[in-house]
Amino acid sequence: MPHLRFFQLDVFTKQAFHGNPLAVFPDAESNAENLDGETMQAIAREMNLSETVFVLSASDEGALRRLRIFTPARELPFAGHPVVGTWNLLARPEAGNVVVAPAGGTGTVRVRQQLGIGVLPVEIEFEAGEPVRVVMTQGAFEIRTASISSVMQSDIIASLGLSVDEMDERLPVQVVSTGIPFLIVPIATLDALGRCAVQGGMLGKLYENLGATGCLAFTRGTRDGNASQAHARMFAPADGIAEDPATGSACGALGGYLARHGALNKNTNNVGQAFNFVIEQGDFIGRPSRIEIEVTMSADGRRIECVRVGGSSVVIAEGMLRF
């Protein structure tokens, strides 16, 4: 009977039972003959978390490892919390120290990873030999759908259980991407965001018709003060995800969206054209998550040149899957 070790981590948090749970199979290559895409999908469905990752040898010689990422419903070419959590694990002895701490135990190690959207860099920060933070570079920022009709906007806000007057009219409803497209919906207040009551069937059809993978509703009202620039909730009912506690790919896209529309407030820490801030997520479902965003813009402020997403992770479980 084939068997595989797995680990579970909480990602975008420093505290167990916060952040977004993630299952990682670091030894998937050792059982590659038993792990076709259909089997990986079945395992992800069994794990029943937002994402499950299988770590494989890279086919691109410039990458250290290849990651295959699955929701309970489909494979994704790229995602945020799976990357951040997986590389935190791969820098630990229990997963074979695929990434080794720098001399002295403190500093940053930069590697390259192979994903469905290509080979991208990732940085692992160490303190006293322990991985404490992972920062990933995301794909190119794109506005996929710049204009959405008022009728469809009304349907979208209704599918969130809110009224049109609870939208933030200063910002557009758009589909944006840094590797995976998300429908971005600006909400006027933190109170309104907390009252979302999603009609999953309706919302899933709406965002899929727009070519998106999920819906990220957000407000610029926050809980933590100046470091935070937005509070977000991500719904992907078509993927069997009622609400995701922390979504690095969606929040990276949101970070680029906020910078592109000049929606970052004056307290945002910026050096030149690089903006550093935090997006809050997960609080309304009891899984507080804090996602660190870095957005670099062109000198003229017209183009998003790079989006990076980072955070901490906590290993909370280890087990063996038999199949």
How would you describe the overall organization of this protein?
With about 325 residues, the protein is an alpha+beta fold. It folds into two domains: about 5-140 and about 310-320, Roll (Diaminopimelate Epimerase, Chain A, domain 1); about 140-310, Diaminopimelate Epimerase, Chain A, domain 1. Helix content is about 20%, strand content about 40%. The protein contains six helices and 19 strands. It has a 19-stranded mixed sheet that branches. A hairpin with a 2-residue loop joins strand 7 and strand 8. Helix 3 (about 150-160) runs antiparallel to helix 5 (about 200-210). The longest helix is centred in the last third of the chain and has 13 residues, at about 250-260. It is globular, with a radius of gyration of 19 Å. About 50% of the residues are buried.
Concise synopsis of the structure shown:
Helices cover 19% and strands 39% of the residues. It is α+β, with helices and mostly antiparallel strands.
Task: List the helices and strands in order.
Answer: EEHEEEHEEEEHEEHHEEEHEEEEE
Taking the sheet with the most strands, its summary is: 19 strands, mixed
Unreliable spans are none
**How much of the sequence is in beta strands?**
35-45%
Average pLDDT taken over every residue? 95
Rounded to the nearest angstrom, the distance between the terminal CA atoms is 6 Å
CATH H-level superfamily title of the largest domain: Diaminopimelate Epimerase, Chain A, domain 1
- Counting structural domains, the number is 2
- Any idea what the radius of gyration is? 19 Å
Principal-axes geometry comes out as globular
What's the tally of helices? 6
- Care to count the β-strands? 19
Helix content: 10-25%
In the CATH hierarchy, what is the architecture of the largest domain at level 2?
A: Roll
Q: CATH topology of the largest domain, which one? A: Diaminopimelate Epimerase, Chain A, domain 1
Structural class: alpha+beta
CATH class identity of the largest domain: Alpha Beta
